UniProtKB/TrEMBL annotation:
It comes from Pleurotus ostreatus (Oyster mushroom). Pfam families: Pkinase. SMART domains: S_TKc. GO terms for molecular function: ATP binding; protein serine/threonine kinase activity. This is Protein kinase domain-containing protein. PROSITE patterns: PROTEIN_KINASE_DOM, PROTEIN_KINASE_TYR. Signal peptide: none annotated. InterPro entries: Kinase-like_dom_sf, Prot_kinase_dom, Ser/Thr_Kinases-Pseudokinases, Tyr_kinase_AS. Gene3D superfamilies: Transferase(Phosphotransferase) domain 1 (1.10.510.10). Residues 28-327 form the Protein kinase domain. PANTHER family: PROTEIN KINASE LIKE PROTEIN, SERINE/THREONINE-PROTEIN KINASE TNNI3K-RELATED.
């Protein structure tokens, strides 16, 4: 695999495919340590630097050129906003010929632990503080490009295994989702949507069922990444941090997770008393419910989430709209047809 420095333009990204690699680094595998549940591995460069390499497969080899162009544009935006320590920088990327995939190269910081791994070893961690740091990273992302006809940067892959911990316990958010790519997994027959469905907003799981639902930007849900999707995923990740459980922990197959999400069934902690001691108070639960609202346009914005996490009693306790029973039955039936 050849590693390429991030191109400045999509045209340059296309020329890299034709002219082969321009910024070549030798990456040697090291014994795998952290990140065993993800597609990342620890590696060393020819200059002796330790890095983290994550492989992401193209959804279609025939569309590789277009996908690399789109990826390069999104990567350039990420580079422009990763000056703060809230976000994991991407140092380089590589294009693999067989199987067709992109490899993302980022710094290996500390022990390379995710927040879920860190919590298991440090159960006394101030989890609410970690949740605040994660929410601040999302707020920074969403606010960076806010302006007239300038959409916010949507992360698209917020979950516990993509939140990393520095020495000392502070958190930062990992790589963004590649809209034209699918993570390489051990089970290639399972669609990528299923694999991360525990954290995904229902309108991303079944866009057709939400085609009449407005989103936070005034348009209607169509499967494209939007900030309201991030808010839903952020709530699921905060739930994961505070409880130590993945959302819908009771299900081992993601198809059942998808069915519950489309019915509007929210995650519940495995041990409520333990979760309360870790910070899942009634006010925080109300906040999560507001972030999990079924209608995408009704979810809180990241700025509001940050404010409420700092002063939980300020949350608006207005009940979220309940899912209409008829639509709930339709959504559940659709989930069974599509995913079971």
């Amino acid at each position: 695999m050849a590693i390429i420095s991030p191109p400045q333009t999509s045209v340059q990204a296309a020329s890299i495919i034709e002219q082969d690699c321009q910024w070549l680094v030798c990456v040697t595998d090291l014994p795998e340590e952290a990140g065993s549940k993800s597609n990342a591995r620890k590696a060393t460069t020819s200059s002796g630097d330790t890095v983290r390499v994550k492989r992401v497969a193209f959804s279609s080899k025939s569309q590789r050129r277009r996908q690399v162009k789109e990826f390069a544009q999104r990567l350039n935006e990420w580079h422009a906003i990763t000056s703060r320590e809230l976000l994991l920088p991407i140092l380089a990327f590589g294009v693999d010929e067989s199987p067709a995939a992109i490899s993302l190269v980022s710094p290996w910081i500390g022990r390379g632990q995710t927040i879920t791994e860190y919590i298991k070893e440090n159960p006394t961690l101030d989890r609410l503080s970690s949740a605040c740091e994660l929410a601040e990273a999302v707020r920074y992302l969403h606010d960076t490009k806010k302006g007239w006809n300038t959409p916010a940067f949507v992360h698209g892959d917020i979950r516990g295994d993509n939140v990393f911990v520095r020495p000392g316990g502070s958190c930062y958010l990992g790589e963004f989702a590649l809209t034209c790519a699918e993570p390489v997994q051990e089970d290639p027959s399972m669609p990528a949507t299923f694999r991360h469905s525990r954290w995904m907003a229902p309108e991303r799981l079944n866009p057709k069922a939400f085609s009449s639902y407005p989103t936070d930007d005034g348009s209607y849900a169509d499967g494209k990444l939007r900030t309201c999707n991030d808010i839903y995923s952020l709530a699921s990740t905060i739930f994961e941090i505070l409880t130590g459980d993945v959302p819908y922990y009771q299900y081992h197959h993601d198809a059942f997770v998808t069915a519950d999400a489309l019915r509007g069934v929210l995650p519940e902690p495995q041990d409520l008393d333990k979760a309360r001691l870790s910070g899942l108070t009634d006010d925080i639960q109300t906040l999560l419910n507001c972030m999990w609202r079924y209608s995408p346009s009704e979810r809180f914005h990241a700025e509001t989430v940050c404010r409420v996490l700092k002063t939980p009693s300020s949350v608006n306790k207005r009940r979220p709209q309940r899912l209409a029973p008829v639509f709930a039955a339709t959504a559940a039936a659709a989930a069974r047809r599509l995913y079971l």
